[in-house]
Every structure is written in C-alpha cells, then in structure tokens.
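User: Okay, second chain of the day. Same drill as before: sequence in, structure tokens out.
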Amino acid sequence: MAEEPTPTLADKSLSAAKRQLSKLTKGSLTTPLHQPKLIVRFGHLLTGISVFLAAILSAANGSRVQLLENQALTTFFQMRGTVVAPQDIVILAIDDQSVSIAEQYYKTDPQQYAYLKPIKSFPYQRAAYAQVITKLINASARSVNLNIVFDQSSIYCETDDRQLQVVLRRYGRNFTLAAVYNNFKTHQFLFQQLTQPQPIFRFGAVSIGAVNFPLELDGKIHRLSSEFSPLSDPSTVFNSKMPSFEEAVLAAAQVNYFQGRGDHIYFWGNGETFRTIPLWYLFDPENWNNCLKQGQFFQNEIVLIGAIEKLSHDDHRVAVSPRDSMAGVEIYANAIPTLIANKSISTTIRSPLWRGLFVLLLVSCSSMVVKIRKQGIQRFLLSIALAGVWGGISYTSFIYGKLMFPNTIPIIAIALTGFSYLATEVAREKINKHNLLLIFQKYKSSPVVQEIVH
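Assistant: Same drill. Structure tokens below.
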C-alpha cells in the first residue's frame, strides 16, 4: 500500500493562513458580503423596470414614441433603397426647364417657335392645359390629372378659361382637378375650408380631389391623402369631406382597387423615381415625334401634371428620406400605385392594450433568454444580438409584409436588459475589490495578509 505524501512546511503554512483568514473575515465582513448580492438583485430589478416601462410606453404611444417609430420607418426605407417604379404612372412636369426654354426660344424667334406661345411665360395660359389634355386623351392616355387648383380666373382673359372649359366638357370623364383645404382662423376657432376649382370647371364628369396630406410628428408625410381629416368650422352643421386626389384619379382612370387596412404610403424611392417628362416636350414637334413617339409613350398611362423643383410651392418632407423633400405630384405618383397594387402599409397592433401586452411578452421573453448566460458581458452581447434580430424582423415585415410592428421601444428595452446586467456585474466586481482592499488595509500586519501579499 502506497504511503501518503508528507505535507511540506509551505503547505502547512498556507493551510494555517487560510484558517486564520476565515476567522478574521467571518465576524468583520458580514455587511460587505451582502452588498454584491444586493447589486445582483438590483440588476434583476432594472430588467423588470425596463420590461414594464417598455410595455407602458408602447401602450400609451406618446409623441416621443411616435417620433422614434417614424424615424425607424425612414431608416427602413433608406436601408431598402430605391426600387423599380410601376410603369403605368407618368409625371408631366412643369419644371424649370419647361419654363426657361419655352420663354427663351419664343423670345428669340416668335414666328419660328409660335407653338411655344401658350407656355411662353408662367403661369401658363389655360389654353396650354387644354392643348395638353387634348393631345394626351387622343394619345389614349388612361387619365389626365392636374395637381393645380384653378380657383381663380385666368390672368389672361375670360376666353382662356373658356378654352379649358370646352375641353373638360369633352374629356371630363377622364380628367381630375385638384382642390385644397386652406387654413382659416377667427378670433375663436381655427378651421380648414375647402377651396375648389371655379364653378365653370365643376360639372358631373370631372373628378375633383383634395390634395392635402396628414403630417406626422416628425413633420413628414407618411400616410395617404385619404387619411387627412380637415378641421371643420364649428358654426357649420354638416361638413362633407372631399375625396382625396388619389381616389379621384383612380375614379377618372376607372381603376378598381382594394381598399386594404393600411394607411401608409409605400414609397418606391426619392424624387425622380417615376418617369418624368418636361411639359414643354408636348409642344415641341421634335420631342413629340421622337421622344414621345407622337404620343404613343402615354398610351394607357395615368398622367399626373404638376409643378416640381423651384416652381413647386407644395414641397413636403416625406418618410422615405431623412432630409430631402418631394413635390406633391411626386408623392401622388407613389400614393396612387400604392392603392392599385394593394401595397399600403398597415399597423399590425392598433389596440393600445394588445400593443402593450405584445411588447411586455416580447421583452420579458428576451430578458429570460439573456439570463441564461452567467457573465455580464455575455448577457450584454446576447441582448444586443436579440435586439438586432427583432430589428431585422421588423424591417422584413415592413418592407416585404407591409406590416408595422412596435419597433424602437422593444429594441431599446431588450438592449437595456443586457446593459443592466453588465453594469451591475461591473459594480459588483468593484465592490468585491474594494472590500478585499479594506481587509488588506485593516489586517496588513496579520501573517495571513503578509502570506498572501508575498
């Protein structure tokens, strides 16, 4: 039978040192030893607070929460980038080129460029729009839609208005005019009153739609024009709402579309995503015959006419871009195919109660997964990964499923659970080191401490 090894002098000294250290710390470190445990409990408390606070904020859906969610949607559009726009929408742009070139050419030689006379100065003659409508309808355009409000008489002459009226009576069933809700303020009330085209342009065959969009808290357009709710005049007993411009356009084009649950516009990209033709091309014979193939370019197309660039007085910030603005006619170029293709984006959970419960379940389950790890840094990294996973799910649902889930608040709350564990672990380690330092300072003359130090 083998003999047991004889303990050395060093082993005996170390054993004695450990026994002595145990005796020293049992009575003197009762309170400091409880501190790390309290820190751990505090970490669990912070996680619980994050879970319930996220649920409450999501259910309340306050202004700051809406602002964060809108910013997230803009980020999603930016991550996706520009996609190929539908080919059945064409913008006929009243742009700087149409104004400057027509004016310059006509002044150079009025006889040679007599065909540019209706657009030789801006604002254009109503006769110019009459010519455009006639050309487009004869070219078999599906509908012609003017995003300009003709609420006042022509600055040229009464005959100018009559020329447009005659054309509208002839082709009105395929034409849309714009109306707008303008702000009015009395000493008691602020309300919005509808400004419509002149009565001579309003008759049964012509579609008319309001060109107002609802603005979100971030100052951008996210939703369809049909979601705009005008402030009514309290003195008026009954206020009927004008159809939106996109609804009027689809009525003129005789397009049947599915009215889905969504109310957000599906933007295909920033400005100039859709095919855009300068309006003066329709007056220039060379461009009309070659570029536009004598009007075949517009066959079976929904044509939107409106001002862009510097001439546009209805530029708006939009959800698709963090900084750039977009002309109203370009926004409608996105809104109309949104309805045609049934791509309107909808909020998945509208009920505040269910939204709060959903976030509560999501964040609490994520925190339980985070707690599986023992080390604070691992918990933090796992929480960041889980927050990223939810961000990816939200992005995929938004871009491909046209569904909006609570996004920003859950991501922040999931990340905070990991951060709280990491912070409390760092605090616990510092407390442990501080306590050990106190022991060494208090018992620095003890043989036990001397043994450990040396």
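Confidence is low (pLDDT under 50) at residues 8-14, 24-31.

User: Thanks, on to the next one.
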